[in-house]
Amino acid sequence: MSTRVTVSTSTHATTYVADKLLYGVKRLVRGVGLPVTELMGDWAVLEKGIARWLATGHLTGLVLEIYAEGSSVPSGLVGRFDFGIDYGYVADGGGDLWFDTAAVAFALKKAGVSVTRCTYRVIATTAAGRPDVEGWSSTTLRSTAGFTQQPLGTAITGGSLGADLSYFRRTA
Q1: pTM for this structure?
Q2: Cα separation of 85 and 136, whole Å?
Q3: What is the pLDDT of residues 88-145, one digit of tens each?
Q4: Of 89, 122, 110, nearest to 169 (Cα)?
Q5: How far apart are CA 141 and CA 145, in angstroms?
Q6: Is there a cis peptide before residue 151, judged by omega within 30 degrees of 0?
Q7: Alpha helix (H) residue ranges in the chain
Q8: Is the confidence at residue 4, as pLDDT, over 50?
Q9: What gap in Å lies between CA 67 and CA 71, rounded to an integer?
Q10: Alpha-carbon gap, residue 130 to 128, rounded angstroms
Q11: Using only C-alpha atoms, what is the Rg of the chain?
Q12: Mean pLDDT rounded to a whole number for the chain
């Protein structure tokens, strides 16, 4: 008689990366000096969508937009941080689980975001054909005209999943 045990490392890695993406956003929000109250109130909905779309392979990125209160889309952008998703970060799926908090701290320092009278929103960018998730809706990203994207490299890994981090800095 033999016993066989299998562990779903894919599910564990997906859960880990979803959690660290949100944790990274929380650190960014708090780091620029904005309250995390709204983020925490939306946490369950955010986590549900991010985890679902990571599991289906439809999540392409997670964006934190910081913008002037009362501004309309596409204007008003003050700062932006992007996590880009890489589904083939480690080809065999055997990658470590890690989160680079130093990359988040560096992005905060270099972005130079001034948050006087600002608010924020979290946007998931997804591939076509993604399943709908309750609590999520379509939107348009604010214009990044006048900003330059600065990539920092990989900030989160889990199994075959990776997430890079970049920030947008206003061009002089």
Answers
A1: 0.87
A2: 19
A3: 876 555 557 778 888 888 888 888 787 888 999 999 999 999 999 999 999 999 999 9
A4: 110
A5: 12
A6: no
A7: 9-32, 37-41, 43-56, 101-111
A8: no
A9: 7
A10: 6
A11: 17
A12: 87
